Amino acid sequence: MKFARFEYDGTVSFGVVKGENVILLNGSPFDTYEETEMSHPLAKVKLIPPVDPTKIVCIGMNYREHIAEIGAEVPEKPMFFLKPPSSLIGHEDDVVIPSGGERVDYEGELALVIKDRMKDISEDEALNYVAGYSCFNDVTERALAMKGMANLTLAKGFDTFSVLGPYLVTGIDPNNLEIKTYLNGRLVQHDNTKNCVFSAQHILSYLSHCMTLYPGDIVATGTPRGIAPMKPGDVVEVEVAGVGRLRNKVSSHLADS
């Protein structure tokens, strides 16, 4: 099933995407729902992030080739950091390079979205707590991040630095998905989630023993090799097989001056 959260005529709704249309729901993917007889063409709605999280949890160094790319050691346990919900934007929203930004990178990723309150859950049960999967761009101010782990929140927490969408998709295997990132139409990242150090269920179980995850929370599972900077005017797209293609333009804070 492919769900969308969208705005139409000033109203925010959930819907099911079928072909080029979105059918309105009574309810949401996080509870009981039913399809209505109302629908809109996708081209006429504004897709917004499919969730409103209490937190965004990101896994670092999870793809083996990316670990080699940055010259790091393979971690024994999932390494994670938090991004504020205020950094979240959706499909076709602008990624804004902040004032003083030196090098702002894309990081294409698969996102897991939590469905039910999750605490101290085993790996065997972990995927039962997933509402669905989405594309994620973990935008990073690399110059700040390279100064030390203490700077990760600053480097990754700017407004517009967490991009999610366009859809929330169910019924797929998160541990065997092709993931690609394009910069101005050129393929710059390409890997498969089967090459991750830690599986989706291992990540979720591990996190649930560290913190409580709530419905709508986002868990981003790491980026493949090929990270590189973006500049104003660029277009970055993150594509996850079976999920969709997340597209955003890059702009500068100066554009708002």
Q: Features of this protein?
A:
257 residues, mainly beta, SH3 type barrels, Fumarylacetoacetate hydrolase, domain 2, twelve-stranded mixed sheet, five-stranded mixed sheet, 11% helix, 43% strand
Mean pLDDT: 95
How do the helices and strands follow one another from N- to C-terminus?
EEEEEEHEEEEEHEEHHEEEHEEEE
Beta strand % = 35-45%
Largest sheet: 12 strands, mixed
The end-to-end span amounts to 42 Å
Radius of gyration of CA atoms, rounded to a whole number: 17 Å
Fourth-tier CATH superfamily name of the largest domain: Fumarylacetoacetase-like, C-terminal domain
What is the tally of beta strands? 20
| Rough outline | globular
Question: What would the CATH topology of the largest domain be?
Answer: Fumarylacetoacetate hydrolase, domain 2
- Total of helices: 5
* Low-pLDDT ranges: none
Level-2 CATH architecture of the largest domain: Alpha-Beta Complex
Number of domains: 2
Secondary-structure content class: mainly beta
Broad CATH class of the largest domain = Alpha Beta
Q: Considering DSSP H and I runs of 4 or more, what fraction of the residues is helical?
A: 10-25%
